[in-house]
Design a protein that fits this description.
This protein has about 300 residues and is mostly beta strands. The protein has a 16-stranded antiparallel β-barrel. The N terminus is likely disordered.
Length: about 300
């Protein structure tokens, strides 16, 4: 049985960098430029047998060059934002094709990571996977909770893992995910996670070691700023991106992506949730970006 989306993967080592040149801030008279770096390391601590245990180490750094301030509170927008994360994933194969497992992570998404307990965050997830009536299909029941997620309560998930052919597989429900190869050399991948996380990509094989791709990403993240008066406040960042690029299989297991694209609907705000999106808000004009990604896949 496959590991549910978000609880595993085939990337034991990954690194990405995104450079967004300066664009004006609405109503602020300032520019906003950033360099974002992400790295993840997935360690097989106990990969064999009916039990599997993996450790996960991750780090993100976002450097922002701007003189913009959060307009209501007057606080400068942080030049450095970090998210340092450590976690573990456990999965057990059960009798009759069933499986179950869970994941846990602790992190410090902040401008001053691990400065105090107020800058620490936690996420937990659990799942049960059961065989369906159709051979090769499964039912997935999951529960996730992230203390800095968009949803401030545990989120249930129910999906049917449908595998009708070697060209099509899908998680129908929540999480929602589809992988489809309509013809040889073309693959379509799409996924959705509550509430505002979307990723879609079309990939064309253009050679034995190269693909070209185009996609759409709608992403967000949250940070716990040091010294904030309200412990429940987060600094949220939202944006949509349309990347177009080339993927090169450097070796059998190493993959390099180089892409450029257009970022839009970019804004940040400080508040307790999305309902506060018009408070302490900074809107950044749309513009181009460049990105590079490297991954080892097995």
């Amino acid at each position: 049985p496959a590991v549910p989306p978000g609880l595993g993967g085939r990337v034991p080592l990954g690194y990405s960098a995104i450079w967004t040149p300066a664009q004006p801030v609405a109503r602020g008279g300032a520019d906003f430029a950033s360099v974002r770096q992400d790295a993840v390391l997935r360690l097989p601590l106990w990969p064999d047998g009916p039990d599997a245990l993996f450790g996960v180490l991750g780090a993100r750094h976002v450097y922002t060059r701007t003189s913009a301030v959060l307009p209501d509170s007057g606080r400068p927008f942080p030049a450095h934002l970090w998210d340092v994360r450590v976690g573990a994933l456990y999965r057990r194969e059960l009798a009759g094709g069933w499986s179950a497992g869970g994941a846990f992570s602790a992190s410090s998404p902040s401008d001053r990571p691990f400065g105090s307990p107020r800058e620490q965050a936690y996420a937990v997830a659990g799942f049960v996977q059961a065989p369906a009536a159709a051979d090769g299909d499964y039912w997935l029941l999951a529960l996730t909770y992230d203390t800095v997620g968009e949803v401030r309560f545990p989120v249930p998930g129910l999906a049917y893992l449908w595998n009708p052919s070697d060209r099509l597989s899908a998680s129908l429900g929540l999480p929602l995910a589809v992988s489809w190869r309509p013809v040889d050399g073309v693959r379509v991948d799409a996924g959705y996670l509550p509430v505002r996380r979307v990723r879609a990509q079309v990939t064309w094989e253009v050679g034995p070691r190269a693909d070209v791709f185009a996609g759409f990403e709608w992403a967000n993240e949250a940070y716990l700023l040091a010294g904030r008066a309200d412990a429940g406040e987060r600094l949220y960042a939202y944006q949509k991106r349309v990347p177009v690029g080339v993927r090169v299989r450097v070796t059998e297991h190493a993959v390099l992506d180089l892409a450029g694209g257009y970022a839009f609907d970019r804004f940040s705000f400080a508040g307790r949730g999305y309902a506060d999106r018009n408070r302490d808000r900074i809107d950044v004009a749309p513009g181009a970006f460049l990105q590079a990604r490297f991954a080892l896949r097995f």
